[in-house]
Amino acid sequence: MMKKTIMMLLASSLTWSVPSLAKNPITDKMFTADPAAIVYQDTVFLYTGHDEDTDNTFYKMNDWLLFSSTDMVNWQHHGPIMKVTDFKWAEKHAWAAHMIERDGKFYFYTSVYHNSEKPGFAIGVAVADSPYGPFKDARGSALLTNDMTTQTDNDWDDIDPAVYIEENGDAYMFFGNLVPKYVKLKDNMIELDGEIKVLDLPNFTEALWLHKKGEYYYLSYASGFPETIHYAMSKSIHGPWQYKGLLNELAGNSETNHQSIIEFKNKDYFIYHNSAIQHDSAIGAGGRYRRSVAVDKLEYNVDGTIKRIIMTSEGITEPAR
Known about the structure:
It holds the Pfam family Glyco_hydro_43. By secondary structure, the chain is mostly beta strands.
């Protein structure tokens, strides 16, 4: 317990506030993408990718960043929590990730490019005793590799992990590009438990995210290209999934669209990325490979469907209490 407390204090001492006047994106000090948020002990922990491309020609992503907030308006940046080379078997590309807590452990699932032993994108998992880290490879090998699925010829079709734990303790990982898939995890959270199953989602591209509200499960995802966010609903995590249509429009000049949906202090939020940083910022203009994480409110209709997201430049202006 003392060790855990010391680590959290040290991590907190390394933070600094991101200047915020309730605006989108949440920071203009660096380029961020692929948000994955969790709520833990009255704090939102937001994990993002880190776009470092200088000439806007392709994704240059070497590490993952952490931000936190207690009110959804003011954000603290805690620096990088991991780099792709922390997975000794990985070669490059710190792409989209997902965080989940179980029994006091924090599991960080990531999309990375495997070395030549098993070429193609793979999913790794790291673990820590604190949401701040330090994180270490939980297996010493990939959780899932490109050769374990055969639905496409692409070497990037096993990306964008999103993990959900049922009330009965069963854990599932959703993932995929072009073909949506999911698989049960063992209780230790670092091994697969059974066959990989394919989902039926119209015009699916990538970026699966599962959340539950009331009696309904919601499966949102990026569709088409350039990408918009669509969603489906079900009363079971196994489906059948009823397609509900468009949730979020094109995010400016970002061809990709990646979402995270959370409830925090009785309010619902839609976290996504765009390319809204202006050319006069200290780091230059955003673009298709220079993205920025933003937050707007999410609202439900009486029948449980979700209202279309309204993206704003103001962002969240009312602190969550």
